[in-house]
Description:
By secondary structure, the protein is α/β, with parallel strands linked by helices. It has a single domain (about 5-350), classed as Glycosidases (TIM Barrel). About 35% of the residues lie in helices and about 15% in strands. The protein is built from 13 helices and 10 strands. The strands form 2 sheets. The protein has an 8-stranded parallel barrel with strand order 1-2-3-6-7-8-9-10, surrounded by 5 helices. A two-stranded antiparallel ribbon has the order 4-5. Strand 6 (about 165-170), helix 6 (about 190-205) and strand 7 form a beta-alpha-beta unit. Helix 1 crosses helix 13. The longest helix has 17 residues, at about 190-205.
Amino acid sequence: MAQTQVDKLDSTLPVRGLAIAAPMQQDLDLFIKFIDKELASGHFNLLILRVDWNYAYESHPELKDPNPLTKQDVKRIVATCRKHGIRLAPQINLLGHQSWAETTYALLREYPEFDETPHVDTKNYTPWPNPDGLYCKSYCPLHPGVHKIVFALVDELMDVFETDLFHAGMDEVFYIGDDKCPRCSGHDKAELYAGEITKIQNHLTLKDRRLMIWGDRLIDGKTTGIGAWEASMNNTHRAIDLIPKEVFICDWHYERPDQTAVYFAMKGFDVATCPWRKPEIAMEQLDDMLRFRKHSTPAMTSHFQGIISTVWSDAGRFLKSYYDPALSTQTVSDALTVKRLIEAYKSMEAGTFSLP
């Protein structure tokens, strides 16, 4: 593709991303092929990889999963992405998502003193809603020892991925400022949430790195009617006025094309809209993003960065769905959404894409 064509596509939609779990070792070869043959030819230019504990950390080896990706594995991903001009953003879920159902993840398993709600036992998990209000555990943002551990992991991961972008998750934080926490009880939840984001961004700034987060906790779920999942009902939304403007917002909406990207842009943040498993919603969100960029002031246009498609199955299962026609033709699927976006980006590059 000629450089002028690349520049034109980047000008039209600067960010064309995919957020997906980092592959397991047994799926690495196929994942490399997917980057090389699908994402590159489909004009994706950003890959967010949820690594969490799937890496052989040297700084804290006690936190690695069994059979994690090695440094050599990561370097294969880095080389493939660099070849195609695809930026990388590794992710570790910080603050929330420290457990899932009955499973407590590595950080709180190895350092239970960091738990915001130690009185809630994940072994007693029952489907949501449950008496403990348990969806996912959080670490306590005011614990004096937690950031020494997590920042060592963040630094190590960013060094091995050779990147200046880090995604901290920060979505669906239901446990924050718990009444029984000896440190957080009585604190303003918005200030706690903003304080954690600011602390992470300030750490990254020391090496000229940038933070990306999911945007749901910064939206008022009651006023907007969006509710407790894609927005906040526990008063963290006011943090939007307390966090650094360099934070990049990944604004996810999966059931409706809610246009909250405008809200984030008006607050001065760069933002990308993030679809999931409904291709028709993703196409509406792409149309919206292109329209926002076309019909806004230059100051606002620069904040509307693009689209980041999300995949919430593991990478191996996604790849099977992507390459198996019997699976990938489902009316609702992660794979079909990615394929539709690839088609759209190719038509944009060719100059044949038009808004309805």
